[in-house]
Amino acid sequence: MSRPPTFTTPACARSRTLRTARGDFAVLDARPGGHGGAAVDGPKGTALLVPGFTGSKEDFIALLQPLTEAGYRVVSVDGRGQYESAGPDESGAYEQPELARDLLAQAAAVAGESGGGPVHLMGHSLGGLISRAAVLIDPAPFRTLTLMSSGPAAVGPAQQKRIHLLRDALATLPMAEVWEAMQALEPPADAEEAAGPGSESAQERLRERWLRTHPLQLITTGLRLTTEPDRVDELAAVHPLPKQVLSGARDDAWAVPLMDEMAVRLGALRTVIPGAEHSPNTDRPTETAAALAGFWDRH
């Protein structure tokens, strides 16, 4: 999972509810000049950020300030059943086509609120697969698409094994017990990082996020991560939508060479963030924000 450096909303943003034709979603909404007064000419555009498996809108907190300083409105969203967005007790509600249609409804709502500026779509990991599915249903709402640390098909064998174990646990155990088991299995480096200054508050917020995420959302989307087909050629045929494939220099979900190849197949800009792994948004937020804004500026 992405580990946000903080769950505290920066001054440029506010936590609010985005009302759409498919229901209400919790978002962080950041604007140039803050919510007390936008830039005179309005934002260059609006970025819609979609989190990954076990994540939430807070995964992008460190990107909000630099992206608003670059002139963009940024809306990061909890999908249905993620953290502060409610979700039903029905597994079919979390199938990829449903989540993709939610994303299209979110884009329509955001575009209506932002005064008609272009919407730049960015999906991280699972969020990239959902973003791809939304674009394949209807690319019209989007000016660009960025797939961050998201590959061409299912995740690699090691991650598939971890997800199968997690799904089995979620099917039989309470969320709190699964959380404790996950913490016990953390690699030593991650455990040391979690024990650093201010870690108690951050860990409690991560635990709260986990407990408020619907288990059926995790079970259903986890299955999709292990069975996702290769839809790169379908996406490559979507013209004239500019595309970017962005990742860290290392990735434990999809091999970096797979993402290199995917970018070639898509005719996409390929961006690698040095020193980052599966979550460039938290590993190297300044560099990641600069890469995103630079891509959007060109389109």
From TrEMBL:
UniProt lineage: Bacteria, Bacillati, Actinomycetota, Actinomycetes, Kitasatosporales
Descriptive protein name: Alpha/beta fold hydrolase
Molecular functions per Gene Ontology: triacylglycerol lipase activity
PANTHER family membership: AB HYDROLASE-1 DOMAIN-CONTAINING PROTEIN, HYDROLASE, ALPHA/BETA FOLD FAMILY PROTEIN
InterPro entries in the record: AB_hydrolase, AB_hydrolase_1, AB_hydrolase_fold
GO BP terms: glycerolipid catabolic process
Ranges for domain AB hydrolase-1: 48-291
Alphabetic keyword roster: Hydrolase
UniProt xrefs under Pfam families: Abhydrolase_6
